[in-house]
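Exercise: predict the structure of this protein bound to fe (ii) ion.
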Amino acid sequence: MVWVHILPAASYKEVKMVEHNRMKTSEFIIPEIGIAEIDSDHAEIMRLIKSTINANDKTQFFDFVVQALDYIHKHFAAEEAFMESIQYPGRRIHGIEHKSLRDFVKVYLKPTLQEMTNREEIVRECVKAFKFHVVEHDVPLANYILAQGLKFDKDK
Ligand SMILES: [Fe+2]
Ligand SMILES: [Fe+2]
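Solution:
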């Protein structure tokens, strides 16, 4: 591309780094599990996580992280209460997985909040961990809900 040649070498390198680090929109797309309320929660969690990348400064980043963690906390609590209400056989393991995912996110984010370094890399790891949870644990829950003809109730 012609415009590349008008940039000094250092700037071009920086541009390439930014391109390399920028997370693709597809990375934030989470597979749907077939339960509308859970799917919309997952999409909102992804939207909130994505917003952390666009924070302009440390304060804004912290605010976005708190919002995302708060939403994740509420979502996990809703799933856990529902699993309990239907006596879902996998509820204990699923609850443990929620806790370890929360801990994972906190451990990853702590140094980021202090340093603001490797932000995209760390957010990427959190997104991967969240997607893994959805595929490994929320999908079996959804399958159970559908097989039993149950209705997910967020307020249970
Ligand atoms: Fe879950
Ligand atoms: Fe979930």
